[in-house]
Q: What sequence folds into this?
């Protein structure tokens, strides 16, 4: 298990953000990732449009997971319409 920082951007709409957050946390739990910290960073203006959106709701996670699990979760999040953008970072490197 390695430690990761995970930032995800959802639609700025509260209802869509809640659906997206539930989807992400459920996916992380199914993948047996351990969430050690979750921080809601709020709505911010995007530097460029993503899926025709000018604003996004940012949520930051710190988690522990297996590297192969991160790859499979990345694929799931890429296919999801609830997630605008996401980034996994290994802070130990």
A:
């Amino acid at each position: 298990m390695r430690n990761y920082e995970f930032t995800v951007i959802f639609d700025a709409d509260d209802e869509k953000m809640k659906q997206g957050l539930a989807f992400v946390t459920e996916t992380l739990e199914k993948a047996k990732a351990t969430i050690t910290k979750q921080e809601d960073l709020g709505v911010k203006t995007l530097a460029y449009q993503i899926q025709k959106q000018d604003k996004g709701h940012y949520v930051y996670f710190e988690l522990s997971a297996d590297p192969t699990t991160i790859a499979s979760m990345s694929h799931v999040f890429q296919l999801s319409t609830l997630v605008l953008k996401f980034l996994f970072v290994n802070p130990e490197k």
